[in-house]
Design brief:
N-(1-d-carboxylethyl)-l-norvaline Dehydrogenase, domain 2; binds 3-hydroxybutanoyl-coenzyme A; alpha/beta; 287 residues; NAD(P)-bd_dom_sf; 11 helices; NAD
Length: 287
């Protein structure tokens, strides 16, 4: 079976959080009809609010027109019922970063979706192969790892599971490109390319701060001015969410050993409930 991007009409997104709503937004801007599903109406509504704010920023910056923003929003349908995704040609799952939750979702999608549908997960570190094994069609499952903020970041990581079919991989590259993104490919190994390299960098930045190498501002300036990245490790950790960084680091540590040990201060911040920008405080304080 050969999947063609030209044949895609409807895109399903599971999860209406930061990543899911971003994926719904870029899919709608690309002209697809989108069904965005979360488990509670309130989460779906929050997803629409995030989309409206983000579309507003894009209109303000001139990236899209007001009427393009309105048309994109109108193409997105919200739901709490997974069965409403049944007609979608491709589904991107962006729910909780928990292997059991993801396996349950994929097992349910396996029941609901037609045979040709491509089932992608936006997981940042979990095994595509383990998620795919919850279905009877592991060849149709792969990783499509978007970056935060999805509407702005150009890159999408395509992850090849043990059983992913070649045409599904090809489809995924073409689909992401149709969303205006550029892709690279990773084998299904912990953290793929990005988080395998990014998480130790963030943890080392946190350790450098905790061990008194420099102030947090100087660590971030050292890396932004010194290596031309847009954000230093502490600011980026706040942007991603400290809970997400900790969870990704723990998965890497479990799979790859001690060189991936999470920074102590990262754990302490998460335990204190300071998760970064989203809670108003992480390494920095936000209004
Ligand atoms: N929606 C729409 N537009 C947005 C936006 C959003 N959520 N956030 C920012 N923008 C737009 C702004 O409107 C602005 O547009 P303009 O230049 O046309 O006026 C542009 O993006 C730049 O935004 P700002 O001027 O507010 O701020 P910055 O120049 O600092 O850019 C940033 C913000 C794009 C977030 C930039 O700091 C950046 O690239 N940071 C690094 C982000 C990063 O590395 N993300 C990947 C994290 S790793 C990951 O996601 C993987 C996961 O598994 C952990």
């Amino acid at each position: 079976m050969t999947r063609k991007v030209d044949a895609v009409e409807r895109v399903g997104v599971v999860g209406a959080g930061t990543m899911g709503s971003g994926i719904a937004q870029v899919s709608a801007i690309a002209g697809y009809d989108v069904v965005m599903r979360d488990i509670e109406t309130e989460y779906v509504e929050n997803g629409f609010e995030t989309i409206e704010n983000s579309l507003g920023r894009q209109v303000e910056s001139g990236a899209i027109t007001e009427s393009e923003a309105e048309a994109a929003e109108a193409r997105i349908e919200g739901t709490t019922d997974l069965e409403d995704l049944a007609d979608c040609d491709v589904v991107v799952e962006a729910a909780l970063e928990d292997i059991d939750v993801k396996r349950d979702i994929f097992s349910d999608l396996d029941e609901v979706m037609n045979d040709e549908a491509v089932l992608a997960t936006n997981t940042s570190t979990l095994s595509i192969t383990t998620i795919a094994a919850a279905t009877e069609r592991p060849g149709s499952v792969l990783g499509l790892h978007f970056m935060n903020p999805v509407p702005v970041m150009k890159g999408v990581e395509v992850v090849n599971g043990e059983k992913t079919d070649g045409d599904v991989l090809e489809f995924a590259h073409a689909f992401a490109e149709d969303l205006g993104k550029e892709t690279w490919e990773s084998d299904d190994k912990p953290g793929f390319v990005t988080n395998r390299i990014l998480m130790p960098w963030i943890n080392e930045g946190i350790r450098a701060f905790d061990e008194g190498v420099a102030t947090k501002e100087d660590i971030d300036s050292g890396m932004t001015l010194g290596t031309n990245v847009p954000m230093g490790p502490l600011e980026l950790a706040d942007h991603i969410g400290l809970d997400i960084c900790l969870h990704a680091s723990e998965t890497l540590h479990e799979e790859l050993g001690d060189r991936y040990t999470p920074a102590y201060l990262l754990k302490r911040k998460v335990e204190a409930g300071d998760l970064g920008k989203k809670t108003g405080e992480g390494f920095y304080i936000y209004d």
